[in-house]
Structure formats: C-alpha cells, structure tokens
Amino acid sequence: MFKEMKVQMSEQPDVLSSKPLRITRIHDMTFRHSYGKIDKFFKGFAQGKLLATKCNDCNKVFVPPRADCPYCMADLTESWVELPKECELHTFSVLHFAGPTFFKDLPFILGLAKWPGVDTYLMARIREVKPEDVKIGMKLVVRFAEPHRRTFTVLDFWYEPAEKLTER
Ligand SMILES: [Zn+2]
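Above are the sequence and the zinc ion SMILES. Below is the predicted complex in structure-token form.
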C-alpha cells in the first residue's frame, strides 16, 4: 500500500500548488455481501431462472423478491414462483452517465419490465437494441450470463427484444 502511495505522489508534482490541497489515493477494498433471506433469487440466475416471492394470503407476487409481504407481513422466504422469460417493457431510460465501472458501456438502456400477475416491476439492462428502437410496451425476454461471466449480482441477467431473438 505504501508503495502505491509513493507512485501516486510522484505522479502529482504540483500537489503543493493545488488550492485547496488535492491528492489522489488508491482505495482497494473487498466487500462481502450476504443476500440473506432472498439468496435464492441470485442463485436462480445460475439456473436460468427468474424467481419471485408470492404471498398466498394476499395473492401478491414480488420481483425483486421480498422476504416479507408488505401487506400482511407474512414470511415469504419459502414461497417462490418462477417467472416466464417473456415480459413487457413498462418504461425505460437511456443512460449517458454512470459509475466508473460502466463508463465503457455508455450509453446504455435500463428498463423496467412487467409480467401479468406480478405486482412490481423489475429493472435490468436492455441489450441487443439501439436506444432509438426501444419502445414502451415492446416484448422482451430475459437472458442470463454464461457461467464464466457470472457475478451473482443483478448484472447476471438482462432483457433483449423478443422479436430479435426469434429472427436468429
Ligand atoms: Zn400478504
């Protein structure tokens, strides 16, 4: 770590002339995430499944999944349903700015998809389509990352236009 700091400082010969004093430091951190009660959702990506939780008392379906029903507080951790791959675009946004990790992908599209009988919307990237060709109400399909690209995060799935897939 000290060695990295020395390199950084040598690359900033004018650091003392900056007002206010500005320095650059490299932060290298490891995060450990626990998905707790909804880890089945993330494990599902590796099985090519998009899973939601369902409250059988309220007949409500939630995706992203909720561990507890917000209406009756029932425990939903053992009440999962698999959603079909086909869904519909509810709304979308074309991003021209994002966090540094995604600079290389800009511009990209984030879409909120909906399923019949599901009470929430699910956000994911929309790929394989130009921003100008995205239309609210278009049919989408869910696609999953190949095993060597899996991150066990929400980046492991995305939407693609359903029509384009049938043309392949
Ligand atoms: Zn409920």
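The helical segments are 2-10, 39-46, 162-167.
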